[in-house]
Design goal:
Layout: H1 2-17, E1 20-28, E2 38-39, E3 47-50, E4 57-60, E5 68-69, E6 81-83, E7 88-93, E8 105-114, E9 122-128, E10 144-150, E11 154-159, E12 162-169, E13 178-186, E14 191-197, E15 200-201, E16 217-222, E17 228-240, H2 242-265
Antiparallel strand pairs: 1-3, 1-17, 2-5, 4-7, 5-6, 6-17, 7-16, 8-13, 8-17, 9-10, 9-16, 10-11, 11-12, 13-14, 14-15
Helix pairs in contact: 1-2
Amino acid sequence: MNLIRTLFVAPILAASLGSVSAQTIIGAGNFVSTGSNQPLDATSLGLSTNSPGGLWVWGAGWSWAAPQVNATWLGGVQNAVYLAEENTVASLTLGSSGGYTKPVEFTITSSIILSGQMSNNVGLLGFWSVQPTQSNGASSLANFTGFTFDETGTLRLYSGGTDTGLSASLGTVSEDVYYTLSYTVNTATGGVSGITFGGNAVSGFSTTAFTDSATSYVGVASGGHSRVGFSELTVAAVVPEPGATSMILIGGIGLVLHLRRVRRSA
C-alpha cells in the first residue's frame, strides 16, 4: 500500500513544488545611444515595467557625473546606462504603493560592465534602505545591502553598508565585458539564494540581511574610483503558478480519499 500511495502522490507533489513563475516588477533595458546625452535622473528612460510607479533617482557620486545613456560621439559604454564617475547610484523605489504590493521573495538581475577607462573598478547590484540622493563625495555603499564585484574576480556581500566578510572567487573578470549577476532574496527570512554570475552558480553566502526595510530601493552603482555601466535591470517576484496551487489541492484530496479506502479495506 505504501508503494501505491507513493506512486500516486509523489508525481503530483513534485509537479506542484517545482512549478513557479516570475512576475516582473521592474524591467529596464533597451537603452540606445543617440546623437545627444540622455540623462537618467527623474526619468523613466528604458523602463518597460515599473509597478511601483517610481522614476530613476541619481544618488551619491559627484555633481558632474549624472548617470546617462551616452551620446554616440562620447567615450565609455554605449547602449547602456553609464555611471560615469566613482560612487554613482541609479536607483528605483521598490516599496508598496497604490495597488502594488511588494512581494516577499523576488529575483534581481543585471548585466554590468566595468569600464576600461578606470582601473580597479567595482560594480554594485542590490538595495538601499534609504534612497541615495546626489551629494558630492557621498559613498554608494551607504545603507547598501547586496553584492559587489571587482576586477580581482571577487564577489562580496554587504549589509547596511558594511562588508560582511563573506566573499567568493569568480575567476577572471575583464574590463569592457558584460557580466550578468542575479540572485533571489526573501524579505521574510532576510536570506539569499540562487546566486549566479556569468551564468555560473555561486555559493558560500548565508545571511539574514535582505529584510523588507533593507530592500526599500533597488539599483546599480559604481564603487570608489570606478566607472561602470549596465544594460538591463530586472526585478521579478517569485510566485507559484495558479496551476501549482491547484495541483497541491488535488494531491491532498487524492491522498485523503486513498487513505479512507485503505482504512475501509483493513
